[in-house]
Amino acid sequence: MSARSDLTELGRSETALRAFLHGLPGVDQVGAEQRAAQLGTRSIKATAKAWAIDLAIRMVDLTTLEGADTPGKVRALAAKALRPDPADPSCPHVGAVCVYPSMVPYVAEVLRQPAGGAGPADAQAAPAGTGLVHLASVATAFPSGQAPLEIKLADTRAAVAAGADEIDMVINRSAFLTGRYQEVYDEIVAIREACGPAHLKVILETGELSTYDNVRRASWLAMLAGADFIKTSTGKVPAAATPPVTLVMLEAVRDFRAATGRQVGVKPAGGIKTTKDAIKYLVLVNETVGADWLDPDWFRFGASSLLNDLLMQRTKLTTGEYAGPDYFTRD
Amino acid sequence: MSERVTVRKTYKLYIGGKFPRSESGRSYLVQSGENSTANVALASRKDARDAVLAARAAGSGWAGATAYNRGQILYRAAEMLEGRREQFVALGIPGDEVDAATDRWVWYAGWSDKLPQVRGGVNPVAGPYFNLSTPEPTGVVAVVAPAAPALLGLVSVIAPAIVSGNTVVVAASPTDPLAAVTLAEVLATADLPAGVVNILTGRLQETVPSLAGHRDVNALDLAGVADAELATSLEVKAAENLKRVLRPVPANYDWYANPGLARMTALLETKTVWHPKGG
């Protein structure tokens, strides 16, 4: 691994960047898949399960990214984010709400009501253990990223101006796959700057990167360019987050912290639908990067249907009876 | 030539159209026919949960199938049952009972497209509207099968539930589950969509309370619960989310008698629509 000072210089030349990324050790595909599968067999029960479920709820980026999203729908989603289980005040709120830029103002209405107002964000009405529910917005011509840079930058600025404090950008896969690493790097740096105070999550869209080696390179590239989070997928292509891909990314953030001292978060997104899946990911996190990442600030789930399953499992643990989907809002 | 070794059968659960072993990996011994024993899966509450998921998933497709289609599939099940008569007899079930069970399937199969006419209709209203009521299935029904008669009792609780479009999770008789597992094989080859009937074998105390308390089960048929105390506790659990409950069937009930419509109509909801008259 290069020394700390070298890494900051890498972005200055395409040659150095390419040499570094191609100098990263290759991923043992069979090994990564077996390791992820083996960690998925851990049995998490009783109190540990209850803890894991509450943590997973706090890590959910409650997402709706449909052409059919309406202000009413995203307002309802935001209200659910604040209080996922209205019947149980001990249920924690989710990590963030994730929407398209045009929907950000409506979410902000619900999430950012001034304290003392009569709404659900009222300090007294807020659920136990409350903190800020973040407001994430996808940007940069999500999901394909096939737009000129100026449009991507304008997209990002608009989302931040509307109240988003986290931006989920997509990398330029076209440039990455053709080997134009500098272009990808510069684009992330530019978006990073446009974000201002907002956190930047960089979506690698691993389903389109073909190999684990590419996932590792894209992870490093995004982190070198200043990503606060690296995210697996848009959820718009069939191959979304998988445990082995997340394992490779977790190894990358671990090595990156060892090399630079800066901690970067990871967000698997797409295809995580059940509590069992979510707990498998938490085991993966704990065993790969350790407990430092077992926190909503450093690990998130991009999901929509996952939350209801978590709530049903939580209800099962608190009441002893299996819950039904009829008792939770469908979003 | 050496003597042939007979192939012993493993009796498994029937969930979502498949025959899985119990999630718990357990099994127990039961008497099979005159002088042999068989290993039967001992279902856990997680198997019950999986069965409810399968039943729920099958619900919309089965309820949405035409009454004619449901009737044909049930009739097909009766055909398969007739064809396996000898197999049931070998399990110790009297031939008369197998015949009665087959006739019962056919009888219920015929009701699929007649029930809506008997239980629904046009309501007279004082306004320019058509007002129509139609029976709809309740949803997922958890059924405790009667211990005896093993096959006829089982058919007499499953058929009336599914003919109207409900899906069922059946807890088979713990002492005599072979008829239930064999019936599952009949249903699996009868074009019945996966998950419409799910069969659990094992201890009632283990599976049925979790079904009774399950929020995603709509009705509970306690036909085969002989223990009054267990029946009461199950009714209490079912009351939590207002499940429809069918009380235990008395031990002296004659399963061969004409069952009437009661078991079918108990598992229906009535949907009424108002439609403005033209002109």
**CATH architecture classification name of chain B:** 3-Layer(aba) Sandwich
**Low-pLDDT windows of residues of chain A:** 116-130
How would a crystallographer describe the biggest sheet of chain A? Answer: 8 strands, parallel
Coarse structural class of chain B:
alpha/beta
Mean pLDDT of chain B: 94
Taking strands numbered 1, 2, ... along the chain, how are they ordered across the largest sheet of chain B?
7-6-5-8-9
CATH class label of the domain at 4-57 and 135-304 in chain A: Alpha Beta
Low-confidence residue ranges of chain B: none
- Average pLDDT figure of chain A: 90
**Helical residue percent of chain A?**
40-55%
Q: Give the helices and strands of chain B as they follow along the chain.
A: EEHHHHHEEEHEHEHEHEHE
Strand order of the largest sheet of chain A: 7-6-5-4-3-2-1-8
Q: What's the Cα radius of gyration of chain B? A: 20 Å
Kindly report the greatest chain-chain contact and the residue count on each side: A-B, 8 and 11 residues
Strand content of chain B: 15-25%
Look up the CATH topology of the domain at 4-57 and 135-304 in chain A. Answer: TIM Barrel
Detailed description of the structure:
- The complex is a heterodimer of chains A (331) and B (279).
- Chain A is an alpha/beta fold.
- Chain A has a domain at 4-57 and 135-304: Aldolase class I (TIM Barrel), CATH 3.20.20.
- Helix content of chain A is 46%, strand content 10%.
- Chain A is built from 13 helices and eight strands.
- Chain A has helices at 4-9, 14-23, 29-39, 46-59, 71-82, 104-111, 149-161, 173-177, 181-195, 212-224, 243-260, 275-288, 306-319, and strands at 60-63, 96-99, 134-138, 166-170, 199-203, 229-231, 265-267, 301-303.
- Chain A has an eight-stranded parallel beta sheet with strand order 7-6-5-4-3-2-1-8.
- In chain A, α3 crosses α11 (243-260) and α7 packs parallel to α9.
- The longest helix of chain A has 18 residues, at 243-260.
- Chain B has helices at residues 45-64, 67-83, 85-90, 95-111, 115-119, 150-162, 178-188, 204-213, 228-239, 262-265, and strands at 27-32, 36-41, 121-122, 129-137, 140-144, 167-171, 197-200, 219-221, 244-246, 268-276.
- In chain B, α6 links the parallel β5 (140-144) and β6.
- The longest helix of chain B has 20 residues, at 45-64.
- The radius of gyration of chain B is 20 Å and the shape is globular.
- The model of chain B has no long low-confidence stretch (mean pLDDT 94).
- Classes of the chains: A alpha/beta (331), B alpha/beta (279).
- The A-B interface holds A 320-327 and B 49, 52, 210, 213-217, 237, 240-241.
